[in-house]
Amino acid sequence: MHIAVIGNGIVGTCAAAWLQREGHKVTFVDPLGPAEATSFGNAGSLSPSACLPVGMPGMWKKVPQWLLDPLGPLTVRWWYAPVAAPWLVRFLRHSSVDEVVRIATALRGLLAPIFECYEPLLQRAGATGLMTRSGCLYVYSGEEAARQWAWGMGLRRQLGVVMRDVGEEELVELEPDLKGRFRFGILAPENGSTVDPAAFTRALFAQCERDGADIVRKRVTGFRQAGGSVTGVTTEDGETLDCEGVVLAGGAWSARLTSQLGTSIPLETQRGYHVTVESTNLALRHTVMAVEHNIMVNPMRMGLRIAGSVEFAGLKAAPDYRRADVLLTRAKDMFPHLDTSRTTQWMGHRPCLPDSLPVIGRAPKVDNAWFAFGHGHIGMCGAASTGREIAALVAGRTPQIDLSPFSPTRFAA
Ligand SMILES: Cc1cc2nc3c(=O)[nH]c(=O)nc-3n(C[C@H](O)[C@H](O)[C@H](O)COP(=O)(O)OP(=O)(O)OC[C@H]3O[C@@H](n4cnc5c(N)ncnc54)[C@H](O)[C@@H]3O)c2cc1C
Fold it and tell me: Is-contact 283 177, C-beta < 8 A?
């Protein structure tokens, strides 16, 4: 089939690569170049352990306190509150114990095969060097503090994530730069990372191009449909590109296009920030998740990337880089000797659903359109397995992962 892939972030790129492996002709349609949106500046973690949803049991008690602090880990800009409120209510409804177990089980299914789904793509692209398998250290000020998160860590273990406790002495051996600030850790040795998320995505995209993908640098505004099928995608200049199938991987911008295909999806953007400290004098060996600070610190080839924060302010508002400054302040708390003379800042749009699960499946009202978006905080982790499963759906095969929790019809009620 000739398939138009809308979106060339990591999810669209992986879907295209897997479709090409099955012999399909791909045309990317996106006004931006590869990895110029959210896939550019994320924290790069490739974590089979990242199966917990964002909304956890008891979180509702902390939300009011977070909302009162404009620079806290979660913020809603006041003028956006009426838009965000109904979504946040739905989000909190998915944070019960039963819901979290259901969601984590589904996410574990998607994330367990991260590496088996990325490896063939990276090998073909000659880019295996952009992925590392050095593990992730979840760090805490002490064992007592870690107990607050023990239930979630226990759930991860029950779902098969390999993790082991690390005492203070071993923590310092594993990461000497953490000395003094953290006294307890949990090591997820099977986690991986990319040393440059943008280069990683672009390497896979370049291989798609070498394998014959066409590239159309335009925004999709609608579809030409006939008899329950899409026969073309319409672009901003009014032209229509013929195709025999469509994969919608438009990240946080996907909802307007799903509506045009007859399905309403409650997609919201959780805006996140990074600071990259360019001339780092640290030598971290692992991805470090500072759980109490809610930030991830990852050594990358361009420096030390510190990422986190959740801000509700829609798709159009300008970034509030005070939130990135907060990340840097927290990083200086963690590493007092960090040289912060050269830094860059960035904001990106995580595409999020209220249940923290992406949407992966055939469009309910169209035969030949497939949805692949809404990966929220785990788009780098889940892109390759999403791509493999989209290729199975397009071929009419039973997917290897149970996709029912990710169904586009789940919000219909
Ligand atoms: C601070 C931060 C840290 C993060 N850290 C991690 C991490 O460590 N690990 C992890 O797994 N995930 C992480 N994420 C999440 C991850 O970055 C995203 O889930 C992922 O990049 C989403 O990829 P995507 O391809 O769906 O979207 P994007 O990369 O945003 O790409 C979407 C593309 O669709 C295009 N598009 C949209 N609308 C249209 C249209 N109408 N027509 C044509 N094209 C269109 C856009 O131009 C864009 O190029 C993080 C995110 C943030 C913000």
Answer: yes
Which of 38, 111, 234, 359 has most ligand 1 atoms within 8 Å of its beta carbon, as the pocket-test mutant? Answer: 38
Q: Classify residue 257: in a domain, yes or no.
A: no
Q: Is residue 244 part of a domain?
A: no
Note whether residue 199 is domain-resident.
yes
Report CA torsion sign: 146, 149, 154, 159: negative
Domain residues for the domain of 405 are 2-209+265-411
Ligand 1 test: best mutation among 375, 381, 390, 406, most atoms within 8 Å of CB? 375
103 falls within a domain: yes
CATH number, domain of 18, equals: 3.30.9.10
Q: Which atom of ligand 1 is nearest to the CA of 44?
A: 8
Beta carbons of 377 and 6 less than 8 angstroms apart = no
Q: What is the DSSP string of 308-324?
A: EEEEE-TTTSPP-THHH
| Tens place of pLDDT per residue across the chain (413 aa) | 999 999 999 999 999 999 999 999 999 999 999 999 999 999 999 999 999 999 999 888 888 888 888 778 889 999 999 999 999 999 999 999 999 999 999 999 999 999 999 999 999 999 999 999 999 999 999 999 999 999 999 999 999 999 999 999 999 999 999 988 899 999 999 999 999 999 999 999 999 999 999 999 999 999 999 999 999 999 999 999 999 999 999 999 999 999 999 999 999 999 999 999 997 788 899 999 999 988 999 999 999 999 999 999 999 999 999 999 999 999 999 998 899 999 999 999 999 999 999 999 999 999 999 999 999 999 999 999 999 999 999 999 999 999 999 999 999 86
Number of domains in the chain: 1
